[in-house]
Amino acid sequence: MKAMILAAGFGTRLFPLTIDRTKPAIPFLGKPLVGYVAEYLAKYGFKEVVVNLHHQPNSVMRALGDGSDFGVKIHYTHEEPEILGTAGALDNARHLLEDETFLIANGKIITDIDINAALETHRSSGALATMVLKENTNFEKFTEVKVSDGLVAGFEPGFPDSHGNKDGRSNIPMMFTGIHILEPRVFDYIPRGVYSDIVPTFYNPAIKKGEKIAAHIAKGKWFELSTIPRYLDISLNMLDGGPERNVIGLNSDIGESAVIKRSVIWDNVRIENGAALSHAIVCDDVVIKEGESYENVAIVTGAMLGHCEKIPEKALSGEMVGDNYVVPLDQELV
Q1: Are 307 and 185 in the same domain?
Q2: Which listed site, 8, 19, 179, 321, has its alpha carbon 20 to 30 Å from 33?
Q3: What are phi and psi of 237, to 5 degrees?
Q4: pLDDT tens, residue by residue, 73-102
Q5: Where among 224, 248, 283 does a domain terminate?
Q6: For residues 74 and 145, what is the distance between their CA atoms, to the nearest angstrom?
């Protein structure tokens, strides 16, 4: 049984961390994020893994290589010249997936959800597809998946709030984890060679037609790293020893009198004596000079801005401070 990791997205809400790499290729506790997903799949016996590429494709290929470091064999598919969407990505890989049941996982998640339990739900239900769901106990901004008698019944527009769902109900909404199991017949719904997303292209028409879409309600840890604040907080919370520690990357030069608290430092960073950082992300090759102090920010070198034509609309805004581009993290998220 094969799996596919979706890794082609632009990562606009993680800008500027994603200027020179795609979202799944950002470092997370010493490994590329997508490497954790590959290892997670390998743990459950998936040996053949398809990875789709579009934005900054070389960054993913550098991160994963042939997959052997993560216990899998990687097959890459390239989406050119335009990105194809979540259903279009399957169409582009149908020659690798259409022979048997397969699993899809988002390339930006960290989880220990039991895939075997989800597979058992799928097989016992006889469903065309199974969506792995979790309770959205914190009422975060994830689309609600409506469930009835163990089946997916549809998708609620908008996001739930802490006082209940959009219609005022107080029950806990269900959210999609980015993991789903599909039968090859899903390709009957997916057009060839065009941009298309999986919910409007497959799930909504299939549900309307009466196809059985199973809902597997999962337990366990699940984190989605789609924004800079989420990336920072989850990185710190998953550290051994708790969130008061720091993540320090390779070849970083930290001055003896520099003060660093609850921060994530990437590779080849220099933090001079007398500098201070608190709850910050400092990306590759940044120099924090003596006496500089930053709190609750993400920092990249100003030179990195030369790698992009414009700042994405959904990105948090920042400003040049000396040689660095500094993004405050206390802004309203789009």
Answers
A1: no
A2: 321
A3: -70, -25
A4: 999 999 999 999 999 999 999 999 999 999
A5: 224
A6: 31
